[in-house]
Design a protein that fits this description.
The protein is mostly helical. It has 7 helices and no strands.
Length: 136
């Protein structure tokens, strides 16, 4: 059974979100999910979650830079995770339009967080993209 990219993205969000609560890496999280729920991630899920995890330091630096007047520690774990995933996708997944990546992030925020979080995420991603366009 194949899943949509939106479903794969949501699964990647859930896997990445799991690392915020323990010291496991993404590979361990996936292994545990496989053992406990017989879960095998789709290729796109694996690419997003692993890629974002590998670039975590760089992505977190961008979150700090573009979340004006907000310390990363004040941002909810859900919003941080969504931002990590979206920023990875925007910077490294070239076959997805940036507007789709931003929209998908906002939709994840609407589902898992609050309206304020979705606006906050949209604003940070918008600032990031505008700066990228100016430097291109």
């Amino acid at each position: 059974m194949s899943i949509t990219r939106s479903e794969a993205r949501e699964q990647a969000f859930i896997l990445l979100f799991s690392i915020t609560f323990n010291d496991y890496g993404i590979d361990e999280i996936i292994s545990l999910a496989n053992l406990t729920r017989d879960y095998t991630p789709a290729d796109f899920t694996l690419a997003l979650s692993s890629g974002a995890y590998e670039k975590l330091e760089d992505i977190d630096a961008l979150i700090e830079k573009y979340s004006e007047n907000w310390n990363k520690n004040r941002i909810s774990k859900i919003s941080i995770t969504i931002l990590r995933l979206a920023i990875y996708e925007i910077l490294h997944v070239k076959d997805i339009p940036i507007s789709v990546s931003i929209n998908e992030a906002v939709e994840l925020a609407k589902k898992y967080a609050t309206v304020d979080d979705s606006s906050f995420i949209n604003g940070i991603l918008g600032n990031l993209v505008r700066t990228m366009e100016l430097s291109d």
